[in-house]
Design brief:
185 residues; mainly alpha
Length: 185
């Protein structure tokens, strides 16, 4: 159904809420984020927020889903354009160039990992992470040990990026070497 003027469809409003919520959750996590802040950022009322998502946890999990979907989409595009035997490298490059620069998405993923003390969130995040692993494995055709290294390197990149570790490269030669290695890859 087409919209006229500035009226948004329910799907567009839901997407805007997910974007606003991911930004808020990325900064303060599940426990530290208020639904009032999310509603304000999204430009909607808090009661409307709860019409779209019954609970804050449901919204948090939807944001985790969205972050994982963005990763899978980037990996699928990269693998589709890569030659056989180079798909894993192409997915790694896509992660570094498309996904790591999006700090909200990176922090949202990390907040999902932080919140796994809640069994429902743990089960959800574990399942979504497992799905990403399966997609990488299928798309790359790489053996399990190479997929393991791919994810280990990616997690390390997450930490380095989140902390802006490059800021201390001038005073730490190991970090400086890592930064050069990342730039060269």
């Amino acid at each position: 159904m087409a919209t006229t003027g500035t009226r948004k469809t329910a799907e567009e409003r839901r997407a805007a809420v997910l974007e606003a919520a991911a930004a808020e959750f990325a900064l303060a996590g599940l426990a530290g984020t208020s639904t009032d802040d999310i509603a304000r950022r999204a430009g909607i009322s808090q009661p409307y927020l709860f019409r779209l998502f019954r609970t804050k946890k449901e919204l948090f999990l939807a944001c985790d889903d969205r972050a994982c979907e963005k990763i899978v989409e980037a990996f699928r595009r990269a693998a589709a354009d890569a030659e056989p035997g180079h798909k894993l490298d192409a997915m790694g490059t896509a992660y570094e160039t498309e996904l790591l620069p999006d700090r909200h998405a990176l922090f949202m993923l990390m907040q999902g990992y932080v919140a796994v003390s809640d069994p429902e969130i743990r089960d959800h995040v574990r399942r979504k992470y497992g799905e990403v692993i399966s997609v990488v494995s299928e798309l790359s055709g790489a053996p399990p040990d190479e997929v393991w290294r791919f994810f280990a390197y990616g997690m390390h990149l997450n930490i380095v990026t989140a902390m802006d570790l490059g800021a201390i490269a001038g005073e730490n030669p190991v970090v400086a070497a890592w930064q050069e290695s990342i730039k060269a890859s």
